[in-house]
Give the backbone structure.
Amino acid sequence: MSKKTKLKIGEFSRLMQVTVKTLRHYEQKGLLTPDEVDESTGYRYYSIGQMQKLKDIRDLQRLGFSLDEIKDLYEDDSHTPSIQQMTEKIKETETQLQQLIARRNQLLDWRNSRKEMKTMEKFSIQSLPEIIVASHREVIPDYAALGPMCYEKIGPEMQRLGCKCPTPEYCFTMVHNKEYTPTDIDIEYCEQVEEMGQDSSIIQFKRLPAIHKVLCMKHVGPYERFYESFIEAFRYIEEQGYKVAGQPRTSYIDGAWNQDDPEKWLSIIQIPIV
């Protein structure tokens, strides 16, 4: 009678291209226990026959079956999913596929919109659709306080309220001071959301009407220099024979959240015109 081949866990791991950590996890789940454990050394040994079982487990995982589902198959001695189980897994896969397609399309839209922002001319005339926004208005000491206000206060509150933002994301500010001031800035931050929510002490929801014609101008650099771009934008409006027809917005594309160098921050100034 030929001697039964025993493989140490490390050797079995190497041959089957599975980490020892994964093998131990399978053992803890009661899915693939060593064929033999040496009581004196604690060494775990696997048999040649267990190679096929491990392959079957990994194949079932790749098809979307969880370890618990696979364990049930082996406990029932079926080892193979039933027609009904495979049909249910196909339905789950189709649902996941639709979700992935939707995610891909959103990412494509987001990427394309960012490309458009990066490559757009310095000035362009666009229209803005009607949107729902989550709004927060506050007097901040200076523009340096804008970032912390967004990610320390507004962001967590929007998350708590369960706000869902479409992609590409659209957030902007409007300044309510009647005259320019570098300090004590009365600023309103707005971020587009998919639906109206319940107002809180920090966030108010509002519906903003569509704007037929807007002058858009790229601003590259820190927010303290917004005034330079506003000077240029209003000069352009006057030269082209337009008139300002509403409160300007400043939309944020790249900032402190993804770009360390303020000189590379990209914002879009949007001024309603007729």
Summary: The first helix runs from residue 9 to 16.
